[in-house]
């Protein structure tokens, strides 16, 4: 008579326990991979937003020009950095239909700490009334800190450099050598430095 073959109860329980452990480990590995994938996707989105914001600031600074703005008969300097307000004149607007649109406009960066957002405000004309409303867009989100300093060549938190320059029209057209933007986004700190290249813009315009 042949002995009966098969698993004993102990062997079956051991096999079930091993399977349970392997299943738990497999789930943890799978869950970890999903979280890593989600973090990478979020990082790519955040990096894309930073790159877009950097490129926008780069385009603005390359097109910055030493032109004053007339706001309701108040002549504003070509670039203003006062009390966290940063605004400047820029050129480069294209008028393909020849509608007489000015190539120059006024741009302002505005940080709203309560919203943790940096806004880009654009006025279509340098000469305007105080009632004109700007075109507003979000430059960057989730911003914990945003600060602009001018480089001339030393860092300065205000521009024009002195109150006397606010009464001199020639001095109002003066631009610093560059700007530095210090920002913290999602607990990561960045420093962006941009040169202002159009300091000879008025001379070029006169020659043309």
UniProtKB/TrEMBL annotation:
Parts forming coiled coils: 33-60
Subcellular location as annotated: Cell inner membrane
Record-linked PROSITE patterns: PROKAR_NTER_METHYL
Entry keyword set: Cell inner membrane, Cell membrane, Coiled coil, Membrane, Methylation, Transmembrane, Transmembrane helix
Pfam families: N_methyl (PF07963), T2SSJ (PF11612)
Membrane association type: Single-pass membrane protein
The keyword Transmembrane is annotated on this UniProt entry: yes
Transmembrane segments: 12-30
Family of the protein in this entry: Belongs to the GSP J family.
Protein name: Type II secretion system protein J
The organism's taxonomic lineage, starting at the top: Bacteria, Pseudomonadati, Pseudomonadota, Gammaproteobacteria, Moraxellales
């Amino acid at each position: 008579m042949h002995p009966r073959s098969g698993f004993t109860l102990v062997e079956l329980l051991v096999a079930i326990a091993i399977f349970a452990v392997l299943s738990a480990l497999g789930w943890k590995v799978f869950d970890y991979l999903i979280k890593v994938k989600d973090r990478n996707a979020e990082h790519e989105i955040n990096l894309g937003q930073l790159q877009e914001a950097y490129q926008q600031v780069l385009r603005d600074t390359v097109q910055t020009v030493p032109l004053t703005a007339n706001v309701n008969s108040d002549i504003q300097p070509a670039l203003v950095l006062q009390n966290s307000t940063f605004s400047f004149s820029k050129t480069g607007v294209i008028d393909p239909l020849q509608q007489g649109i000015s190539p120059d406009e006024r741009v302002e960066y505005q940080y709203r700490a309560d919203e943790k957002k940096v806004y880009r405000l654009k006025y279509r004309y340098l000469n305007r009334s105080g009632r004109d409303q700007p075109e507003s867009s979000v430059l960057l989100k989730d911003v914990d800190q945003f600060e602009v300093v001018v480089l001339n060549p030393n860092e300065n938190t205000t521009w024009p450099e002195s109150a006397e320059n606010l009464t001199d029209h020639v001095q109002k057209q003066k631009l610093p050598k560059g700007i530095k933007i210090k920002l913290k986004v999602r607990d990561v700190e960045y420093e962006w430095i941009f040169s202002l290249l159009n300091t000879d813009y008025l001379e070029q315009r006169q020659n043309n």
